[in-house]
């Protein structure tokens, strides 16, 4: 009899906890304490001064396609993103680095009113969208022209996409975005192979719009934190700028890149999850009452 009572209790509690821990979204699998998003990108450099280098005043526009998420512990992914897709657009401008910055780095800010993300809040660097109809393919610029790829990624709201998250410089003094070791000339980047690393990128940004279904906590920006602040940002990551060899049209795309971005979802149940836990506890109470009656 005792084993039957125990089985009933475990069933009630287990059902509630299993449902409470189910993913909030069928599209994105989050892992606690850290979730990393992995992507493939297409990049275009607007060489505004015609110098054939990535220099102050130049813009870089990227189209992102995310393939999977992973956690930091064994068994936490990699989990493919699907059946819907997660895509994004970045628009940044090269700016002068702060005094005292290490030599050989390029610093970036949001492109603002001059960029393709001008419809979003000031200082937005990146916008991510989910789309119920997967239609973007960035590998070798299969998505076509820059305008077409941007539209398929969600820009302009023409393909049914929904904003998932925005990231940028929204007041946190720790925020940063810079590259190092970039090949000296744009033509040199274009001539490098698709798997050749022609530069590295590091970033730590704040979150503006958050439609992820998750409360996002602080994540360390050490050792790259901007001056002042508490040593934390909301999203951080790094990646590699890759060569453009094989891209069909250098008037549309300059290079490829591969970046990983991480967030810390807070382990706080959503209201629906709290209700499910309550149902589990109610079931536990019912089992106890039934057992007292039977006794």
In one word, what is the shape? globular
| Helix and strand pattern | HEEEEEEHEEHEEEEEEH
Low-confidence stretches: 1-25, 269-284, 286-290
Terminal Cα separation, in Å?
11 Å
Number of helices: 4
Short account of what is shown:
By secondary structure, this protein is of the alpha+beta class.
Describe it for me?
This protein is an alpha+beta fold. It has 4 helices and 14 strands. It has helices at about 1-20, 145-155, 185-190, 270-295; strands at about 35-45, 60-70, 80, 85-95, 105-110, 125-130, 160-170, 175-180, 195-210, 215, 220, 230-235, 235-240, 255-265. The strands form 2 sheets. Strands 1, 2, 3, 4, 5, 6, 7, 8, 9, 10, 13 and 14 form a 12-stranded antiparallel β-sheet that branches. The chain has a two-stranded antiparallel sheet with strand order 11-12. Strand 2 and strand 3 (about 80) form a beta hairpin. Helix 1 (about 1-20) runs antiparallel to helix 4 (about 270-295). The longest helix is centred in the C-terminal third of the chain and has 24 residues, at about 270-295. The radius of gyration is 23 Å and the shape is globular. Residues about 1-25, about 270-285 and about 285-290 have low confidence and may be disordered.
């Amino acid at each position: 009899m005792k084993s039957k009572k125990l089985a009933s209790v475990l069933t009630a509690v287990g059902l509630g906890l299993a449902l409470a821990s189910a993913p909030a979204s069928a599209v994105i699998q989050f892992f606690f304490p850290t979730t990393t998003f992995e992507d493939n990108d297409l990049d275009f450099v607007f060489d505004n001064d015609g110098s054939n280098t990535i220099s102050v005043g130049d813009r870089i526009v990227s189209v992102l396609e995310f393939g999977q998420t992973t956690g930091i512990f064994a068994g936490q992914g990699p989990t493919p993103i699907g059946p819907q897709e997660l895509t994004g657009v970045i628009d940044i401008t090269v700016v002068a680095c702060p005094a005292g910055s290490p030599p050989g780095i390029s610093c970036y800010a949001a492109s603002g009113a001059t960029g393709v993300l001008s419809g979003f809040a000031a200082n937005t660097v990146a916008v991510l969208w989910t789309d119920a109809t997967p239609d973007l393919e960035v590998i070798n610029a299969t998505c076509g022209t820059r305008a077409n790829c941007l539209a398929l990624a969600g820009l302009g709201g023409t393909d049914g996409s929904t904003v998932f998250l925005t990231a940028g410089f929204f007041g946190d003094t720790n925020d940063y975005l810079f590259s190092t070791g970039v090949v000296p000339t744009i033509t040199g980047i274009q001539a490098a192979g698709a798997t050749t690393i022609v530069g590295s990128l590091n970033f730590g940004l704040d979150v503006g719009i958050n439609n992820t279904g998750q409360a996002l906590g602080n994540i360390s920006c050490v050792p790259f934190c901007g001056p002042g602040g508490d040593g934390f940002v909301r999203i951080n990551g790094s990646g590699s700028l890759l060569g453009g060899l094989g891209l069909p049209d250098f008037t549309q795309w300059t290079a490829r890149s591969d970046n990983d971005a991480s967030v810390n979802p807070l382990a706080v149940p959503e209201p629906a999850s709290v209700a499910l836990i309550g149902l589990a506890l109610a079931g536990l109470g019912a089992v106890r009452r039934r057992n007292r009656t039977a006794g």
